[in-house]
From TrEMBL:
Keywords: Kinase, Transferase. The keyword Zinc-finger does not apply. Essential for recycling GMP and indirectly, cGMP. Residues 8-184 form the Guanylate kinase-like domain. This is Guanylate kinase. It comes from Cohnella silvisoli. One of its GO terms (molecular function) is kinase activity.
Amino acid sequence: MYELKDRDKIIVFTGPDGSGRKSVAEAVGQTFGMEKVISFVTRPPRPGEVNGQDYHFITHEAYREMEQNSEFLESVEISGNFYGIRGLDIEENLYQNGCVYLIMNHEGANILKKIYGDKVIRLFLYADRRTVEERERKLGLAEEVIAAHLGHYDVEMGYRGSCEHAFENYDLGQTTYEITNTLEIYFQRDLIDKD
Ligand SMILES: Nc1nc2c(ncn2[C@@H]2O[C@H](COP(=O)(O)OP(=O)(O)O)[C@@H](O)[C@H]2O)c(=O)[nH]1
Ligand SMILES: Nc1ncnc2c1ncn2[C@@H]1O[C@H](COP(=O)(O)OP(=O)(O)O)[C@@H](O)[C@H]1O
């Protein structure tokens, strides 16, 4: 097992669906050369989603087997589908890069915080309900998926106060800029500590 270093960082993008976590995370990830830890999921891919890029799409049987082998650090059921993060994927990524990012709901963010403590920085993104609904409709998501997401909206919004930082996302460039500045402070602090 890889022993985590003090300065290893786990960046968790959380907040309601449609708040822009994926878009912002990709941009910020590129800026800092951070890799995404990809979840395993039992839901079928949506049009345009790529296996191994958006998710590892696996069958219920394969998921159950991984679960029985204790491969998941956290595993949750959302709208009838299972989502899990493999512990080894986080550790291998940290070993190579010293930082990783993930996109998850409040349950996953909470579990990671409990396990990894100060190494976890939770970035909460949000926009008002109508905006996220419009974005998801524009994205072409099925009505039942949008309805399920909106059904989780209030619970996800309630997690804001638990996160280390929160960002309203209406202007993608601005949000990305603010998050980059926030993370730079963490990364610079580590450089200074190292000296
Ligand atoms: N706790 C947890 N949440 C996850 C994981 N992977 C994805 N999620 C979040 O769970 C929700 C899944 O909803 P889904 O309809 O599949 O949305 P999408 O995959 O973001 O388009 C999203 O908010 C994801 O960000 C995971 O491994 N653990
Ligand atoms: N600030 C923004 N302004 C307008 N559209 C946005 C903004 N941020 C994200 N989007 C769009 O909203 C949709 C949902 O964003 P996404 O990053 O997939 O959200 P999440 O991962 O939180 O579900 C995408 O089509 C994305 O391009």
